[in-house]
Amino acid sequence: MILSIKNIHKSYGNLNVLQDFSLELDKSRIHCFFGPSGCGKTTLMHVMAGILKPDSGEIIIPKDIRFSYIFQEERLLPWMTVEENVALVLQDLKDQGSIERQVKASLSLVELNDFAKYFPSELSGGMRQRVSIARAFAYEGEVLAMDEPFKGLHLKLKQNLMDAIYKYWTLHKPYTYFITHDIDDALYIADDIYIFDGPPMRLVEKINIQIPHELRKDHPELLMDYKIKLSNQTTSLTQPSN
Ligand SMILES: Nc1ncnc2c1ncn2[C@@H]1O[C@H](COP(=O)(O)OP(=O)(O)OP(=O)(O)O)[C@@H](O)[C@H]1O
Question: Residue ranges of the ABC transporter domain (predicted)?
């Protein structure tokens, strides 16, 4: 099965961000959206998730599909504890015992079980972001959509989180796609990297990473050719043309 958008148009006033834009994503791979700031990645993600209505075009997704969406900012409720923030997305879905188990399992994936009773204001920015990732895990959407989920996190923590996301993906196999500006993040976890330019957004290249995830952490040299390719593409996009 695939998630598909076809011939989508989306403008903000005179700015055409998506112009006759089409894309198909399957479940068997982790997809990464890469491209210069302002090219339209978030707009694309919002349109795909139904958060933003396109001006025209078709969104073809399986019926009643649920999105676990991680936004650029954490969007936690300050008056609720960590566990309450995570449990919030489960209220309509499960009984109390299952909710508690699910919250615990999700917090454990992001290594925050010890902070379940803390309030957001008592946590660092990185910890708050991990809570928002745990919340997305707990919801168990059939789609895991992430807009720069690792922004501002230091390397070790990012790797732990990407490992957690990969583990979650192998367990649940949701459609998974994320936006990043960081080449190393893309190469660490993605199977397909879409390099975009714009606006209007266009696909410059799709890079298919052939190295198994299990080898990437300990053998970054295997990713070197991809890294050079991605760096060259990025430089050519961000350099002003003469
Ligand atoms: N609500 C809005 N109203 C007007 N213009 C907007 C709105 N949202 C986005 N834009 C503009 O549309 C373009 C695409 O924005 P978008 O956020 O989709 O890009 P992006 O690739 O995700 O950027 P970044 O990497 O910086 O987050 C940008 O020029 C942005 O300023």
Answer: 3-223
Domains detected in the chain: 28-49+143-162+174-241 (3.40.50.300), 66-141 (no CATH)
What residue has token string 């969406």? 69
Task: Give which of 36, 71, 28, 24 is closest to 52, Cα–Cα.
Answer: 71
46-88 pLDDT, tens digit per residue, is: 999 888 999 999 999 888 889 999 988 888 999 999 999 999 9
Q: What contacts 29, CB < 8 A, 6 or more positions away?
A: 191, 192
Q: Which amino acid is at 220?
A: P
What is the distance of C-alpha 8 from the center of its chain? 21
Cα(117) to centroid(ligand 1), Å: 36
Task: Dig out the tokens for 127 from the structure.
Answer: 């910890």
User: Each residue of 110-153: pLDDT tens digit?
Assistant: 899 999 999 999 999 889 999 999 999 999 899 999 999 988 78
Look up the ipTM and state it: 0.97
State if residue 37 touches ligand 1 by the CB under 6 angstroms criterion: yes
Give alpha helix (H) positions in 121-221.
125-139, 155-172, 183-189, 213-216
Q: Whose CA is nearest to atom 17 of ligand 1?
A: 42
Whether residue 106 contacts residue 165, with contact meaning beta carbons closer than 8 Å, is answered with: no
Q: Which residue has the tokens 């350099």?
A: 239
Q: Which token pair is 37?
A: 């700031």
